[in-house]
Automatic annotation (TrEMBL):
The keyword Nucleotidyltransferase does not apply. This is histidinol-phosphate transaminase. Gene3D superfamilies: Aspartate Aminotransferase, domain 1, Type I PLP-dependent aspartate aminotransferase-like (Major domain). It is an enzyme of class 2 (transferase). The gene is hisC. Homodimer. Keywords: Aminotransferase, Pyridoxal phosphate, Transferase. Residues 5-327 form the Aminotransferase class I/classII large domain. It catalyses: L-histidinol phosphate + 2-oxoglutarate = 3-(imidazol-4-yl)-2-oxopropyl phosphate + L-glutamate. SUPFAM superfamilies: PLP-dependent transferases.
Amino acid sequence: MKTNKKIIKLSANENFYGCSPLVQDAIKKYRWNDIHLYPDFLQASLKEQLADKFQVCAQNILLGMGTIGIIESIIRFLVKPGEEIITLERSFVAYWQLSQTHERKCNFAALTNFTCDINNILSCINNKTSVIFIANPNNPTGTIIPHDDLKNLLENISPKIFVVVDEAYNEYVTDPSYPDSLKLLAEFPNFIILRSFSKIYGLAGLRIGYGIAHEKVAAVLEQKRLPFSINSVASVAAIASLDDEAFIMSCKEKNETERAFLFSQLKKSGYSVLPTQANFIYLYFDNEAEKKMAYNRLYENGLQVCDLKSFHQDRSLRMVVADRTINDIIVYLLAKNKM
């Protein structure tokens, strides 16, 4: 399908407000005459800043080319041939895609009302289970698993099974029941936290993510990380982004306001929309034809959202929470679609 309008991309959950001005300044001031030099392999400065922010040791920090880089390392090095992983049926596609790449079986735990249900995860566990991946908030639904449920899961599985919680959107969460992951990490050595600079920090194009894990686990994954996989510009940008708490808070507050607006207005128009804790909205439809009509209406008017059929999830769309100008257009177009 073609359109003559300039396309506004709302399909990849990127920060609609870009990155911090401090990041832009840091990149401008970067020593470009040193671009011929390899980056710091250990990334000591970035690790120290992350460790200070989260009050952990630098040895607890692991880095990757986005969280996908760390997910790939976990599947490759923590899941042995013949072992299996578990993830949710409607969740981040990288888990099962990378399990296929490395020829590891991926089992899917069903959601209950589009939300993670630990009983369904527990029923999937067998003697081959090695790693459980949980996106929290879940992508694409935006729903969360609360602290008590996550702790219950950790208490009821073998300590030999790793639980990897992907918190790429954690900075957007406002629900007080959201897990205190660092507290859980202190209690459970088989717990791994993944976080990203691609979302609220606005560095998706630089491909950098990080994790927090037990020192021994982090050491294994860091030793296996590809040499020089974190480029120098990404490192400089990440460090600068951590210095601008005001920018992060501003993005969070604007997202919370606009998220509530989109949710209420789309519900009012008769759409099935989930309450989300992320920076995106998840719409589900009774049939493919209705979904396609909504997608086309937006695209023809220059708004590109994500048709989740490309991720083997039919009858659903996902769109970034934008600013009020764009959100008003979305509400108008989709309300018109219901007439």
